[in-house]
């Protein structure tokens, strides 16, 4: 009987120590605070309602700063706040991550602007560009000048390290939903616009570039923010070899063909004729600029090698 009582006492002592460690290390139950968490996944811009949030017990020592406590929950839910970023089930709802104002303007830094540009499935990197990605923006347009033709194109790296805020009206990184009937027919989701976050000067550049040419998004590594070397690519940079300018080709095509001489004229001695007048070479447009050196002004070609 004595050995049995000793065994019971030792067992109670052991399990009491284990319970004390689990409850706070000193045998005292850990204190908790009831805070508001997401009851289900809440998308960006979605309203936080009593149906999508609930109160749970949270360890008092690890309550996140700005968490909504039980005393504040009713007033918080009555304000019709919305999430400024997506929340997952069980994640604490922080007041700094919610707003009762317009969602996009609430998330923009003070010195940044949101601007939308037109894109399609190809210029949007086949749908791989998602909100939150980092891209470069390339502008393709005709070479500036009144005599430039549609074939004289140039590509310029317009902006670098630009954050994508939204694709069309979606600001989440979830894949775009595609109708099953369209998917069976091999159709792809159609994109019409991308919303980018840029500074005020970048917003002006994008607004003007959308009017003068075509904009293309170039997806880049999100961890690589090293600026690339700015350069303009011309048709002559696409490959080596001789390229006939479009203006010269048109001039040669417009020149009249020489009439064939009769057979009899070949047997008779040809009369002496004066040397033909030299044909003027076709004019090839090259952009120029005025250069002032002191009081002397000169006109210099900025494309001395042509195409």
Automatic annotation (TrEMBL):
One Pfam family it belongs to: SAF
Organism encoding this protein: Erythrobacter neustonensis
Keywords for this protein: Signal
Upper lineage: Bacteria, Pseudomonadati, Pseudomonadota, Alphaproteobacteria, Sphingomonadales
InterPro entries in the record: Pilus_assmbl_Flp-typ_CpaB (IPR017592), RcpC_dom (IPR031571), SAF (IPR013974)
NCBIfam families (UniProt xref): pilus_cpaB
Name listed for the protein in its UniProt record: Flp pilus assembly protein CpaB
Signal peptide interval: 1-19
Domain SAF: 33-99
């Amino acid at each position: 009987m004595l050995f049995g009582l000793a065994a019971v006492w030792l067992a109670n002592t052991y399990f009491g120590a284990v319970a004390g460690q689990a409850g706070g290390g000193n045998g005292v139950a850990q204190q908790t605070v009831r805070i508001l968490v997401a009851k289900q996944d809440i998308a960006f811009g979605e309203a936080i309602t009593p149906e999508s949030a609930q109160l749970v017990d949270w360890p008092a020592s690890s309550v996140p700063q700005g968490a909504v406590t039980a005393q504040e929950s009713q007033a918080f839910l009555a304000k019709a706040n919305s999430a400024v970023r997506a929340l997952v089930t069980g994640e604490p709802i922080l007041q700094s991550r919610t707003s009762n104002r317009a969602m996009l303007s609430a998330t923009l830094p003070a010195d940044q602007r949101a601007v939308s540009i037109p894109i399609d499935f190809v210029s949007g990197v086949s749908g791989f560009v998602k909100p939150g990605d980092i891209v470069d923006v390339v502008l393709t347009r005709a070479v500036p000048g009144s005599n430039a033709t549609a074939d004289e194109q140039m590509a310029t790296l317009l902006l670098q390290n630009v954050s994508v805020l939204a694709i069309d009206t979606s600001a989440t990184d979830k894949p775009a939903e595609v109708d099953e009937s369209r998917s069976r027919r091999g159709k792809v989701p159609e994109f019409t616009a991308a919303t980018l976050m840029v500074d005020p000067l970048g917003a002006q550049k994008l607004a003007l570039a959308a009017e003068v040419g075509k904009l293309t998004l170039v997806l880049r590594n999100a961890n690589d923010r090293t600026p690339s070397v700015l350069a303009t690519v011309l048709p002559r940079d696409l490959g080596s070899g001789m390229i006939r300018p479009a203006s010269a080709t048109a001039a040669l095509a417009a020149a009249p063909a020489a009439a064939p001489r009769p057979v009899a004229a070949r047997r008779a001695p040809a009369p002496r004729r004066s040397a033909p007048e030299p044909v003027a070479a076709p004019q090839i447009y090259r952009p120029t600029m005025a250069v002032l050196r002191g009081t002397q002004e000169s006109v210099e070609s900025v494309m001395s090698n042509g195409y």
